[in-house]
């Protein structure tokens, strides 16, 4: 959704909706967002609230894993001065400030950027995930593989003692 910075800097405006996107291994569904724009002395402030669900393969066993989140963040929009930079795109300086050029605020891009900030770097299906066997690739959460039998003979000896 493309919004006009000039219009938003004149009066309050609110938008709500949903948005889906993928980012690397993550597929993200913003189930619901509420975007409240408020004019400020400097520009436009966005109060953004969103509920989202994301799916990604477990980092250890590659099983699909789901996560949820509900966050609120603020973004300050300022007008990009033409002679300062020739960059045509929205620029984020990691301080929650976005410089707007050509009067366009692309709301979907802003939502994506804010949600990505909250995604974990790595997903695991659980703290007790045993991962895949490095030899045969068997998922050790589901069952043990044959490779164990070729392991250190002392291990095998120990197991035999346990069995008896
Ligand atoms: Zn796992
Ligand atoms: Zn194995």
Considering the chains and any ligands shown, give keywords for the structure.
164 residues, two-stranded antiparallel ribbon, elongated, 8 strands, 3 helices, six-stranded mixed sheet, alpha+beta, binds zinc ion, 2 domains
Integer average pLDDT: 87
Task: Determine the fraction of residues in helical runs and give it as a percent range.
Answer: 10-25%
User: Which regions have little confidence, pLDDT < 50, spanning 5+ residues?
Assistant: none
Number of domains: 2
Which series of helices and strands comes N to C?
Answer: EHEEEEEEEHH
Compute the separation of the termini in Å: 69 Å
Structural class: alpha+beta
| β-strand number | 8
Which hetero ligands occur in this complex? zinc ion
Global morphology: elongated
Number of helices: 3
> For the CA atoms, what is the radius of gyration?
24 Å
- Report the biggest beta sheet as strand number plus sense, adding barrel if it closes: 6 strands, mixed
Portion of residues in beta strands equals 35-45%
Strand order, main sheet: write it out.
2-3-4-5-7-6
Written description of the protein model:
The mean pLDDT is 87. The protein has helices spanning 5-8, 107-118, 153-163; strands at 2-4, 13-23, 26-39, 44-57, 64-79, 91-92, 97-100, 104-106. The protein has 2 domains: 2-129; 130-164, no CATH class. It has 164 residues and is of the alpha+beta class. One zinc ion binds next to loops. Residues 133, 135-136, 138, 145, 147 line the site of one zinc ion (ZN).
SSE map:
Elements: E1 2-4, H1 5-8, E2 13-23, E3 26-39, E4 44-57, E5 64-79, E6 91-92, E7 97-100, E8 104-106, H2 107-118, H3 153-163
Parallel strand pairs: 5-7
Antiparallel strand pairs: 1-8, 2-3, 3-4, 4-5, 6-7
The protein binds zinc ion (2 copies).
The site of one zinc ion has 7 residues, from loops.
